[in-house]
Amino acid sequence: MTSMLRRLALVSAVGVGTLLLAPVTPASAYSACAAGTMCGWLYYSDAARTHQQGGHTTNCQGVVLDWGIKSGYSTYISQSCGDGPNPV
């Protein structure tokens, strides 16, 4: 019985050690926008999404804008860049 407890303790220690030594990576990477669109994530501090606190977006020229606090409640946005006629 003691041998079994030692094995269990060893396996547990190895498991915890592995988790502690694992490299830290971002939880999720942002994907590229589809061609001809601007897209990204907007972050809000409240569930009603009335107070925007940050974002990660890519505009129609491919410029990435990254600002504020990127945690809390999020919304994915995507909009066509539209190469329609310019207003006169």
Strand order of the largest sheet: 3-2-1-4
Shape: extended
H/E element string? HEEEE
Share of helix, binned = 10-25%
Cα distance, first to last residue? 87 Å
Percent of residues in beta strands:
25-35%
Largest sheet: 4 strands, antiparallel
Task: Count the E strands.
Answer: 4
Tell me what you see in this structure.
This protein is α+β, with helices and mostly antiparallel strands and 88 residues long. It has a domain at 29-81. The chain is 23% helix and 32% strand. It has 1 helix and 4 strands; from the N terminus they run H-E-E-E-E. The protein has one helix at residues 2-21, and strands at 37-44, 52-58, 64-68, 73-80. Strands 3-2-1-4 form a 4-stranded antiparallel β-sheet, with no helix packed on it. Strand 1 and strand 2 (52-58) form a beta hairpin. The longest helix is centred in the N-terminal third of the chain and has 20 residues, at 2-21. The chain is extended, with a radius of gyration of 23 Å. The chain starts with a helix and ends in an 8-residue tail after the last strand. The relative contact order is 0.18.
